[in-house]
Amino acid sequence: MSDCIFCKIINKEIPSNFVYEDDAVIAINDLNPQADTHVLVIPKTHVASLAELEDEELMVKLLKGVKATAKKLGLTDYRTIMNTGKGAGQTVFHLHVHILAGKLTEKLG
Ligand code: AMP
Ligand code: ZN
To answer: What CA–CA distance (Å, rounded) separates 107 from 109?
Structure first.
C-alpha cells in the first residue's frame, strides 16, 4: 500500500533497522518505546488489522515471527499487544504485534 508507513519500511523506502526478518515478517524497534524493549512484529503483506486478517497461514507465521523475534532478543518474559481499531488505540493501520519487555513507561505500567 503506497501511503502506508510500515509498507514503506518493509520496501526499504524508509530506512530502518530490522531486529528480525523472515519470509513473512519484519521486526523493528518502536519509534516511541513504552518499555525497555518495545519491538513491533509486522507482516510483510499489507493487512489493516487483526479484524481484516483472513489468511490462516499468515496468522501462524505472524505468531512464529513473534516467538522468533523474542528468542533472537533473548527475551523469556514479555507482553504482546495488538490494538485493533481506532477506539482501541490503533494508529498505524498495517497489522502489527507489539512486544514489550522490562520496565514499562507510566502510560502502560
Ligand atoms: P498502534 O498504536 O498499535 O497502531 O501502534 C503503532 C506503533 O507504531 C506506535 O507504538 C508508534 O510509536 C509506532 N511507529 C509509528 N511510526 C513508526 C516508525 N516509523 N518506526 C517505528 N515505529 C513507528
Ligand atoms: Zn502497509
So the answer is: 6
Ligand 1 atom at shortest distance from the alpha carbon of 81: 3
What pTM did the predictor assign?
0.97
CA dist., res. 54 & res. 75, Å (int): 29
- Asked whether 101 and 37 are in contact (CB, 8 A), the reply is yes
Secondary structure class of 109 (helix, strand, coil): coil
Amino acid at 104: L
Nearest alpha carbon to residue 79 among 25, 27, 36, 44: 36
Tell me the one-letter amino acid at 79.
Answer: R
Please state, in angstroms and rounded to a whole number, the distance separating the CA atoms of residues 88 and 101: 21
The question of whether 98 is a catalytic residue gets the answer no
Q: How confident is the model at residue 24 (pLDDT cuts 50, 70, 90)?
A: very high
